[in-house]
# Entry
Amino acid sequence: MNEPVAVTRDGEVAVLTFDNPPVNALAQPVRAALLAAIEAQDGDPMVRAIVLIGAGRNFVAGADVREFDRPPAEPYLPAVLARLEACDKPVVAALSGATLGGGAETALASHYRCAAGDLQFGFPEVSLGLLPGAGGTVRLPRLAGWQAALELMTAGRPLGIDAAIEFGIVDRRVDGDLAAGAIAWARELARAGAPPRRVLDLPVPASRPAQFEEFLRALPASSLRLPAPPRIVEALASAAILPADAALARARALFLECLATTESRALRHLFFAERRAVPDAGLARTVGQAAVLGAGTMGSGIAISLATGGIPVILVDAKQEALDAGLARVKSAIDAAERKGRLDADSAVAARGRVQGSLTLAATSVADLVIEAVFENLAVKREVFGRLGQLCRPGAVLATNTSTLDVDAIADASGRPADVVGMHFFSPANVMRLVEIVRGRASSLAAIATAHAVSKRIGKIGIPVGNAFGFVGNRMLYAYGREKELMLLEGARPETLDKALVEFGMAMGPNAVGDLAGLDIGFQVRREWQQKPDDPLFYRASDLLAELGRFGQKTGRGFYRYDGPGGERMPDPEVTDLIRAEAARLGVAPRSHSPNEIVSRSILALINEGARVLEEGIAESPADIDVIWCNGYGFPRHRGGPMFYADTFGLPAVLESIRALGREHGERYWTPAALLVTLAGEGATFAGWQAARPAQDPDRGGDA
Ligand code: T1G
# Structure
């Protein structure tokens, strides 16, 4: 068992090494060991300087987020850092990789900072619904100024080494051996009699009182609705006017306020849910070459992700024109990523070099992984997999990007169903982080593990789901969308529905999403859907518009019109008239809808369907559903996902609300899921249900 903070000596320099894998998080044992080491080395006359450094790639990735759901334990980080800063000997922090949150605050409490070229220095607390609670809001502005502190802490994005030096946070860059460079510098400082340089002793930079107000007002409305961003600005504003100790105490109080919020609990829930263990990781096959079939929007998006994720890819399409268009999309996306600084020049060149095009399916014979993204038609996909089964080498994994079709039916056509899995990417595939990994009846554990490993490698979150209509995400989307479709027939305007759900926190309203995805796509899927509810009202509004050729953005008209001067989305009264006429024909009486009703019908439908997806084993956990909806469908992260949200509401209340809707709208769609009835009856939660279940081994199809 390694020491959480290892203490070694290099002559008169004491080296304190954080060693708490995987990211040197400042868990209680680390804090206690650090405090003890500081007191010991500061008190040792033989020690003339101290170096702090992290074992492994990272310096320190912050507080241990897992501890936030446990009773607090001393020593608290602010006290440890106050003792560090108080050292009478120069303390040099040697920074590398993730230097985040409490790790960045530890660096700021040190007296001198050097760093390696891979530095990622920042304050991601806001993405956990928190603010820097150990002095960052008081020390950082003294080095980098108010504007930089405001931006860094409200955006949560890290700085690289050059920017960190430019902002005066890092004093010098060390290339090569960081430890040796830091120790040499510490020795130099000691021999030069350099004093401890305490950031808190630096003058408070001048500020304009209105500066903080202006910054707050400029924050996006979505941030202002959250507890943390305004409190970050308040903590910084108080640091501009209060003495350091008072400012530190104020920041700590604001931190504790954030910690207790449901929003922070929701974001912390998602943090770990998005890092769920990859099943059978050890069985994953090596993927040195990939191929993507179909150079359309999805195919080229997937190819971009593979190439920028480090995997060589052959983009295959039968038509030269389509292939050229696909390759052009790949090139312009990589160019754009380089232009926006998301890819450095070397990475962009490497990514471009990894992409080839081909007009022949035979090109797939060299691939370790083939991802099919052709037209969403079962017969077409079965024909393609029949040929892939012949062409691809033994052990190659064959993935289909279908969003609704039966993966087993596709796999059977390949003649090697054990190698077939679903990899359901979300549009735009090079942007959306989610991949639903569909296990077929015969999918081997190795094929599933390979799909997960590749998803992680290209920066995606792979979530395992069962093979059923719409898998998890789209299955639930149909329940969520069903209610908005019924409310449209009941007279609600598309823009009214979208506004209510966006104010709830959805990234986009369902009607705007329909227009973006293309109403013809959903129309096509519903036509092929065998088990579609036998209900003339079911998605009648969308089908009507599709029948009229109003496919959405691609035709300039859908639920909205896009043919205005800038092509921006505009309400279209003609749509409301069309739907009202259709509703009258179907005998649906018009009525008004409050924003609360719009939200509760939509979200309760989502939750109830989520419970069904769980009890059927299509999703392995409520947390997986939350990750799918927050990363694939724009569900508000600060609400934690539909299942977490249901738990915050209390399942008995959720059940009662669903029963009330059943009484009002009929039980056809509003019969509560059995799992929900059981848990509500026990006063339990989805999270508790998950925790009580043995690490499940769902029917995961075929052999290893
Ligand atoms: N606490 C606990 N576990 C953590 C952790 C943390 N801060 N960071 C990572 N892990 C675990 C993670 O769950 C996973 O575990 C493993 O490490 C690898 O993570 C007082 C209040 C550092 C950039 O928000 O952004 O300090 O799944 O898969 O892709 O003011 O992790 O292997 O069991 O993400 O290489 C602020 C969060 C805390 C940083 C590495 N810090 N971490 O990315 O690996 S609040 C953060 C990250 C705070 C102070 C405040 C990333 C990473 P497992 P990974 P990665």
